[in-house]
Amino acid sequence: MADNKHTPPPQDPWPLSPSNEEVVDSAHVTFAWEPVEGALEYRFQVAGDSTFQQIILQEDLPGDKTSYGPASFQADDQTYYWRVVVRTDVGWSAGERVESFVAATREQASLNMARPDDDERMGPFPELVRSGSTEIKAEFTGRPEYYEEEEAEGVEHEGVETAQITILAGIVLVIIAGLIGIVVVLYNNVEQTTRRMVTGISGYPELTQLNQQAESMLSNYGIIDQENGIYQIPIEQAMELTVQQYSGRPESAYSSELPLTPAQQVRYGLPGGAAVSSDTSDVQNE
Fold this sequence. Notes:
Layout: E1 15-17, E2 22-25, E3 29-33, E4 41-47, E5 55-62, E6 67-71, E7 79-88, E8 91-92, E9 99-104, H1 106-110, H2 125-141, H3 144-152, H4 162-202, H5 205-219, E10 222-225, E11 230-232, H6 235-245, E12 258-259, H7 262-268, E13 275-276, E14 283-284
Helix pairs in contact: 2-3
């Protein structure tokens, strides 16, 4: 072996299975790990503690081996720890990659009693859905193969049928959807009522201003075109004068020679644009 005082030790092999305290048949446990390039020798170890102070199994294996077993342990539901260290031309690895398993009976191992994080990215939910589906098929069809599949998946009846749970869950979802719909309708009604209230309070400023201008034009006196003798009088007075004009007053008394002043219009009760002659006080509508 060459001088390797300044060369770091090789990396440990990655333990593959069993892992994460997987429940296994203690009478037939097979271990597997990833190979390490340049491996000359592997040392396989099983211990009763994670620090490997209580080693209960150790085997030296050639560098082309990537598995060991089957090995046998007591079915005592105890957690065991295992690792593989490797020797290359630079020495032995540190042995820091450790995995674990639970030694159980064959029946317990067949129930797949692994921890929820064992190869389950979504936790136990997919397994629960699958087992529930199997139980529903068994209940509704009565076919024996579904009951056998149910037993293999470890489905145990506990007094509450899966079908009942499924129906109850569907009812709860319908109720929740209905409540959401009611909330949406109430929100829309409140929003519309609030909009109407705000509109009623604030009104439309432009329309209010136009109404005020129109009311001012219809109820006040003013000068429209003084040069041509056109003046503004209240609408009610203009209507009365119009009625008088068509009620038979002689037109010969009227003349358009001299425009009336606003004071004269008030005096004679005439609409804007009226005029009088220079030699009479009678008026004529322009």
